[in-house]
Amino acid sequence: MTTETITTDAGDARVTWHRAPRGARLVLALGHGAGGGIEARDLQALAAVLPAHGVSVALVEQPWRVAGKKVAPAPKTLDTGWRGVWPALTAPGLPVIAGGRSAGARVACRTAGELGARAVLALSFPLHPPGRPERSRADELLGAGAPTLVVQGGNDPFGRPEEFPAGTYELVGVPHGDHGFAVPGRAGITQEEAVAVVTDAVVRWSGSLG
C-alpha cells in the first residue's frame, strides 16, 4: 500500500494505492461518499480483494476530506477534485474504471465520458434523496457513457433496486442492505456475506472488461 498527495484545483487530494501483485490489467479508482471516507466497508473490501484478480485499486480522498472538513462541497467542486487526480490514476498506463460510493458514484458517472474511463462502478448510487423519489438523479447514471455496474442495497433509502429505471447498465442488489450495505441481524444474511455480494459482483464484472 502506498499513498500520494496530489494537488488539484480544489485543493490537495490523496490517493491510497492497493496494487495488484502481478500483472495488473486494470485500475479501479474509488471515491468516497459525502458522509464518510475511504474507510467505508465496501471500499476497504474491494481494496483487499481486487488486487489478487489483476486489478489495482486506488482509493481517492477528495480535498475537502483531506483538509478535515465535515461537509462536502458542491458537486462541481467534487468533479474538479476528481479530474485533478485522474492523471495519477492513468499514470500506470492501464484502463481505469471510474468508481465510487454514493456521492462518489455520482462524480464517476458525471465525468466518465470526458475523462475516458473504461467503465463505471456505482456503489450505493443515490438515485434520489430519501423520501423524495421525484428528485431523480437517473440522468447522471444513464449518461455515464461507459459500461456501468450498479451495486445497490435492497433497503437503501436513497433508492432500492426496483426503483431504478431501465437502462444498459447492470444492477446487482445486496439483500437487506442499507446505504452502507449494513444488514440487520434478522436479515438471514451475515454482514460478511453481504459484503461478499459486493466483491463477488465486482470481481466477475471487472473480469468481463478485459
UniProtKB/TrEMBL annotation:
It comes from the Bacteria. Gene3D superfamilies: alpha/beta hydrolase. InterPro entries: AB_hydrolase_fold, KANL3/Tex30_Abhydrolase, NSL3/Tex30. Residues 27-205 form the KANL3/Tex30 alpha/beta hydrolase-like domain. This is KANL3/Tex30 alpha/beta hydrolase-like domain-containing protein.
